[in-house]
Amino acid sequence: MSKDYTFEKRRLVIGSIAILVVLIYIFRLLSLQVMTDDYKRYAANNAFVNQIQYPARGSILDRHRQLLVYNQLAFDITVVPHDMEDDLDTLDLCNTLGISKEIFIQRMTDIQDLDKNPGYSKYTSQVFLTQLSDEEVSPFREKLFKFRGFNIQQRSIRQYAYDAGGQILGDIGEVSPANLEDDSYYTRGDYIGKQGVEKSYEKFLRGEKGVKILLRDAHGRIKGSYQNGKYDHRAVPGRNLVLSIDLKLQKLGERLMKNKIGSIVAIEPSTGEILCMISAPSYNPQILVGRMRGKNQHALQKDWRKPLLNRSIMGVYPPGSTFKAAQALACLQEDIITPGTSFACHHGFFYAGRHLGCHGHSSPLSLIPAIGTSCNTYFCMSFKAFIDSRKFRSHDESITIWKNHMVNMGFGYKLGVDLPGEKRGMIPNAKYYDKAYRGHWNGLTIISDAIGQGEILATPLQIANLASTIANRGYFITPHIVRHIQGAQLDPKYYKPRYTGIDKKYYMDIVRGMRNAFTANQGTCKSGNFTNIEMCGKTGTAQNHGIDHSAFMGFAPMNKPQIAILVYVENGGWGADFGVPIGALMMEQFINGKLSESSEKRAEAMSNRVISYGYQER
Q1: Residue 510 · residue 338 · CB < 8 Å
Q2: For a surface tag, which of 177, 196, 544, 615 has the fewest beta carbons within 10 Å of its beta carbon?
Q3: Which of 575, 564, 459 is nearest to 507 (CA)?
Q4: CATH number of 247-297+305-607
């Protein structure tokens, strides 16, 4: 009997197909159960609820351990989208929470938007509403049984003990998509430091999240803790911070700068600790807390006076005559002048058709009275002698050496303060001037640099740091706002002295000149000589497109300095008009711990002085 090859081939084909189907099923099962954990994760999400335990954020205190920022109980409304009922009474839920249906729809849309909420899963808890008070959440708590899938999660929000230091302390807000991508610690609805200390010390303040694992049945009902909490772990509170800020000094500074625009920065010279940092106008930090944060922040952003801008580190200004101290130090170190070098001044600097005016004072002058009277001619002549000196091979070399001295004194680059947003200012170099003047320039071309004008720009912090360096007679410690971190160390750079490379003996000459400004009949700081404290200072009247800026840089006491300070008042006129009296009052407050009765009257009068800036966009 002949063999039916057609039947054999058919059976072989059918068998092969069957084996292939079996192999496909085996591969698929292997893929689902071994090569991916999707189903395992979905099953776990159905069986378990990971209830996040949020840590208490670290508190913030001033240098005397006065509480500045603390936490207050608040609540978030969360939702597990998978557990929501199809017939949810949306209207009742919205009325209970005090929101519109449009807000409900928008929130649910945002939750499911993977761009706004990376890692979204309908099986996991999602933040629906944040920062509700106990009064706001109570009606919802009573009706919670009606809204399957929704829950209440305990959180905390920041509270500010005083209306002071808004730009220093900063604020916290909901994480952005960029924050979620940058750090896996955060999930949608978490809070993060947005500005100030809250931002720069975020990883210390935030603590570590905990988790409580709950077991639920097939109907989604919570049955209790999984294995009696064996796999739970508690949240670890954030670390407390002690700032170097003196609260009383900070509040006095903000009071004196009322109705003005500008900055005050005070530093403890021996440590580099920032004693106060005022940026005017300021704002009450409490308005950036809670559900009104967005609205209030928008209003602050629209304010033409820019209250959110920390002018102390983000504002760049011509330092004016405060910069003369740095010029003198560079000239002394390079043997361009000596303390006995004198120049004649006839109401200004006149040279080859160039003229820079100067106020009336005795003439000729040596270095110490030139600092005391802030003689423009003296510093123009010495700067020109520096740049045009035959000691150097070229103007490029002389300006490079000059620039290096300025950089070593803390200008031209960021100092490295522990606050976000610091600007570097401007110290021009040879390349800048070669390009600007096509290689044809000399000391006379850039003479405005001599008196802190021209291309020179500095932050108030940098000028305050110059005062601190002079107080220390030749070195500074990187200024910083945090004094102590609970259970941790500060960055080592906040302990290390940075020497300028200029001899101490030359700083002694500058100190005597700055003391002369308070004591001499023609001294520019004599209006601040109303206490028995040996104060040293240097005024600055920085030219501006409108009314000049008023500046003062100083320190006290002369021989054992406790405080170095910079006051900068936009459109305040002469340095003696606003800068000197404000600076003297601030130094008296810190050294004596209070103002005298007569000084208190001066402070009240200063706080009532108004500078009219107009209300146009600036």
Answers
A1: no
A2: 615
A3: 564
A4: 3.40.710.10
User: For strand 60-61 and strand 241-243, is the pairing parallel, antiparallel, or unpaired?
Assistant: parallel
Give the span between the Cα atoms of 344 and 558, in whole angstroms. Answer: 29
Question: Which helix or strand (DSSP H or E) is residue 486 part of?
Answer: none
Residue 222 pairs with which residues in a beta bridge? 216
Q: Which DSSP helix (H) or strand (E) runs through 90?
A: helix 90-97
* Beta-carbon count within 10 A of 64 CB: 10
- pLDDT per residue over 11-44, tens digit each? 776 777 777 777 777 776 666 555 544 444 444 5
pLDDT tens digits along 258-298 = 999 999 999 999 999 999 999 999 999 999 887 778 889 89
> Which parts of 304-354 fold into alpha helices (H)?
311-314, 324-333
For the chain, the residue count is 618
**Could you tell me the fold of the domain covering 50-117+125-243?**
Penicillin-binding protein 2a (Domain 2) (3.90.1310)
Number of alpha helices (DSSP H) and beta strands (DSSP E) in the chain: 21, 20
Task: Provide the residue type at 97 as one letter.
Answer: L
d(CA 543, CA 140): 60
| Residues 518 and 529 sit within 8 Å (Cβ to Cβ) | yes
What is the pTM assigned to this prediction? 0.86
Distance of CA 520 to the CA centre of its chain: 39
Distance in angstroms (rounded) separating the CA atoms of residues 480 and 468: 13
Residue with tokens 């939750």: 111
Query: 352 near 487, Cβ under 8 Å?
Result: no
In the three-class reduction of DSSP (H, G, I as helix; E, B as strand; rest coil), residue 47 is classed as helix
Same fold flag, 50-117+125-243 and 247-297+305-607: no
Query: Is the bond preceding 139 in cis, omega lying within 30 degrees of 0?
Result: no
> Smallest Cα–Cα separation from 279: which of 567, 539, 615, 591?
567
Residue with tokens 């603390």: 70
| Amino acid letter for position 594 | K
- How many CB atoms are located within 10 Å of the residue 232 CB? 17
CB 357 within 8 A of CB 363: no
The Cα 154–Cα 52 span in angstroms is: 10
